[in-house]
Amino acid sequence: MKFKQLIIRVLIAFLAMGVAAASVPVEVMVPIEDVYSPKGFDSNDNSQIIISGYLPNLCHQAPKSIVKMVDGKVDIKIVSLKYDPSNPYCPEMIVPFVEAIDLGVMDKGVYDIVVNDQSVFERRASLQVDEASSDAIDDFVYAGVEYIEKSAGSCRVVLKGYNPSDCFVLDQIEIVDNNKDVYSILPKMKQISDFCALKMVPFEYDVIVPSKLKSDKVLLHVRSMEGKSINSIFLNVNAR
Question: Which of the listed residues 15, 21, 149, 186 has the most CB atoms within 10 Å of its CB?
C-alpha cells in the first residue's frame, strides 16, 4: 500500500512539474512578412519602420520590439513570449500584426535595417532620412488621425479621428511614396485663430489611394500628431 501511495505521489509531482513548465513562457522571434520604409522623414522627425508579421497561435503573447543602433545599421528584433503548446490556453489561430517601430530622431542619411537577424525570419530594408528645413520637431501640424476606414475593392479610404481644437483646419493632404510599397499620407493642418480652446473636434477626410505603385499590397502610412502614425495594409486594387 505504501509503495502504491509513493508511486501516486511521484506521478502527481511529475504532472505538476509539466503544468508548471507549460505555464512559463520563453522569449522567441516571431515570423516577419514585410518591412516597410516610409518616405518623408526629416532629421527632426521621429523616424519609423513599419513591420508586418504574424503570431502562429495564441501560445504567443503580443509582440514587442528591441531596437539597437550599431555602426549606422539599425538592428531590430521582434519577439514574443511563447507558452508551451501543451498549455490549455493555446488554440490554433494565426494572429497578424502591423507594428510601427519608433527609431527616434536620426541624422540625415541612409540607414540599413535588419529585422530578426540570423534567423529564418530575417528581413532587410533601408530607410532614408532627409535634412530638416528647420529646428522644429515637425515642419507641419498633422491631423489627429486614429483610424483608417477601408472598403473592399475600392481605392477610397477615410481618415477618421479628432483634432484637439477648432482653431486648426485641414490645409491639404499630401501623398508621397517610396517607389515600392508605401504611400505616406500627410494630412497637414493650418491654424486659423490665435486662440485655441481645448475642444475635441471629430473629422472624416476622404482620400483616393493613387495608382502609381503596382505591388499587390501596399502600406498606408498616415502621419498623425506628436510624431505618431496610423498604419494599415491596403490590398492594391490598382495592381490587379
Answer: 186
Contact residues for 15 (Cβ-Cβ < 8 A; gap 6+): none
Give domain status of residue 178, yes or no: yes
> What is the pLDDT averaged over residues 123-143?
82
pTM of the model: 0.82
- Domain span at residue 225? 141-239
- At residue 65's C-alpha, the angle toward residues 109 and 85, to 5°, is 150
Q: Are residues 124 and 30 in the same domain?
A: yes
pLDDT tens digits, residue range 40-64? 898 888 899 999 999 887 787 888 8
Residues 108 and 35 in one domain: yes
pLDDT of residue 11 exceeding 50, the answer is no
- 93 burial class (0-12, 13-18, 19+ CB within 10 angstroms)? exposed
